[in-house]
Design brief:
The chain is mostly helical. Helix content is 57%, strand content 0%. The chain starts with a helix and ends with a helix.
Amino acid sequence: MNALLSAIADVHPTTFPDMVSIYLDFDDILEVHPPSIVSSLLETMTAVNAWNLINSKEYRWRMLWRSSYFAQLPEREVNTDTVERFLEHINEAPCFELPNWIDFLTEYQNIDADIFSKVVRILVTRSVENKACARPLEHIYSNHSDLFGQWFNIFSADEALAYNAYLAAFNLDQHFDYSGAALDLLTIQDKNFLLKLIDRVYETERWPSSHTYMPELDFLWQREAYLEDVEQYAMYIYHKETDSYRYGDNLFTKLFTKNKGNPVVEELMSRKMDFLKEAVAKNIDDINYVCFIFTAANFMGEDFILELVKLFLEKNKSFEDFQKLEYERRTTSWSGSRVPILEREKTHLISILPLLNSVDLLEHRAYVEMQIEAKIKHIEHEKKRDYLESRE
């Protein structure tokens, strides 16, 4: 139907408004996509007449047609009455009939320099009752938008709106800024904003994990002050996880997981290792935090875990603390026989023994040897089970 109406607009522009009027008499029965039709109306009649036509009848999605009108209106047609009508519309329209984006408001700034702040403030307020009202806000945080990175200019009268609008959009769709490009710029301006975002995550999930939908935070590793920024993030998550059953998969470990299909960036890997080593050395007397760090280190491979265990033992020889460390690689999912996985885990434990040859670490060595024996028994058990299952 959109294609038909567009063709009529091209061939019979003078009768096009009448055709649209007749169509609307049928209650927008085909639920056409209004933007292209409204654009054609504005080309074939005055803006005032187009507005009057859109509002001359009662029909479904009239508010959506109004949204299209405001979004398609040329800058030369925007006046004080337009701005007042649009603000009224943003206040009243159902959330699902609001414009999909607000970039077009640059056409309104000559009439009202504060138009962005006024509109966004309304949408943020409305989104408290209905999250869907934040949908128009998402696009300004997309790097495909002309407004990307310009938030503190368009919200110069109230810079807090840049953050509040982001949080409103995040509440609607935690994945909307998947790459973290917008969050990166926002947290450069206010590094504590990341902590506010984490609070929102914990409001929706009791125990978030590396599988939680949220922006990627690789930008933290790319900053000159990455050690300080990641430490602030780590400490905040650590305190959030204080009451968890144990330090396992969490938002901090998400920083160390690798997305499938993405290449390993050696510089980032090096920075991750440097951070983990510094975190252990700097907080060696806080065993609970060190255990939290070791949980993340488990995503970095066996060789690095050995390096971290060695560093720990150089600075802390307490057997009680050593028992709390999560230095054993554990695989929680697999297919087929579990024996090969257990064999790798056993090999990893054996590789720790050379670090425990000194007299003051004999108790540690006996403890790891006990773990190895338990692993061997587990392997034998799994082999027997594999054999019995093969005979069924």
